Amino acid sequence: MSENKESKKPEKKPAEKKPDITFFHPDLLQVPENGDPPYLTGYRCKSCGNLDFPKPTICLNCWGEEFEVVPLSRKGVLYSVSDIFIGQAGMKTPYIFGYIDLPENLRILAQLQGEPGTYKCDDQVELTVGPIRMNRDGLPIISYMFRKAAN
Ligand SMILES: [Zn+2]
């Protein structure tokens, strides 16, 4: 007798698991849908006006708890830079980290786009958006990065 393959078909696969996170820092980075350039969000204390990034739980100046979101400058100056050759899991090496000084007197840690050895202190850099690492499913996680400024 022939096997009745039809009736032995395995049941439908369970629903696929939800894709892992692919966009980091939604409360730090805004990417306007109208095509305007992305910007980082600073948090200005409503009590004393102190500006901070990333979002603090309380104002480090006055302990205020209410903040106004303000767009930060897209361009800054590289304060320091490190090429990383032994990285964290999920991060393809080599990659580059730097501290960027923004005109708002904020110093921001971010990944830099490009090849190791191509940045030096005092380089003009600008905000961009790109893959900062891979998620558990091997898909790129998108967040803020900096790259050499156009001019
Ligand atoms: Zn404050």
Automatic annotation (TrEMBL):
Q: Which InterPro entries match?
A: ChsH2_C, ChsH2_Znr, NA-bd_OB-fold, Thioester_dehydratase-like
**The organism's place on the tree of life at top rank:** Bacteria
Positions of the ChsH2 rubredoxin-like zinc ribbon domain: 37-68
| Region annotation Disordered: where it falls in the sequence | 1-20
Q: Where is the ChsH2 C-terminal OB-fold domain?
A: 70-128
Record field: transmembrane: none
Q: Indicate what this protein is called per its UniProt record.
A: Benzoylsuccinyl-CoA thiolase
One family from Pfam that matches here is: zf-ChsH2
